Amino acid sequence: MRWVLLGVLLGLLLVFPALLALVVATVAALASQPLVVAFALGLAVRPSLARLRGWGR
């Protein structure tokens, strides 16, 4: 799903080059907020974390 969304974004950027400025501005606005950055990093790291099976009941 992640690759499909990336492909759609790249396809739109090829069709509408003016969207590049909008995408860059959006990413810069989101990156300036620490809560959004922490949430995104948590989503990126979560699949690689080992699950502790003995702790949860």
Descriptive notes:
This protein is mostly helical and 57 residues long. 68% of the residues lie in helices and 0% in strands. It contains three helices and no strands. It has helices spanning 2-15, 19-31, 34-45. It is flat and about 50 Å long. The mean pLDDT is 82.
Structure, briefly:
The chain has 57 residues and is mainly alpha-helical. It contains three helices and no strands.
Descriptive tags:
single chain; about 55 residues; mainly alpha; flat
Give average pLDDT, whole number: 82
Number of helices: 3
Strand content: under 5%
Alpha-carbon distance between the two ends: 32 Å
User: What is the H/E string?
Assistant: HHH
Helix proportion range: 55-70%
Topology:
Elements: H1 2-15, H2 19-31, H3 34-45
